[in-house]
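Re: beginner question about structure tokens

> Can someone show what the tokenized structure looks like for a real chain? I only ever see the sequence side.

Sure, here's an example I had lying around. Input first:
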Amino acid sequence: MKARVILTGEIIEVKSLYPVTYSRLDCNGKIIEEYDEDELEFIPNQNRPKMVSLDKVCDFLKTYRQDTHDDTGYIAGIVNDKTIEDLRKAMLN
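And the corresponding structure tokens:
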């Protein structure tokens, strides 16, 4: 992950090898510098996948559910309870 060293303003790549200590590694993976968490300002990675709660996704989809019944009793719509349950199963496997 990228971080800015507060003291110097230098932007570096760091790894968290120990709790609350971040290490700058050389190309061979050896520690060349170590920083405490309060010495760094972390730069968020805009390209990393976003993690969201599956429950939040299902709750959001429920707002798009259309409860329309035809004469067979089938609930038709953009999203229905079965679709939400299928999504839940697919994401947990």
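Each token stands for a local structural state, so reading them left to right follows the chain. The first helix runs from residue 54 to 62.
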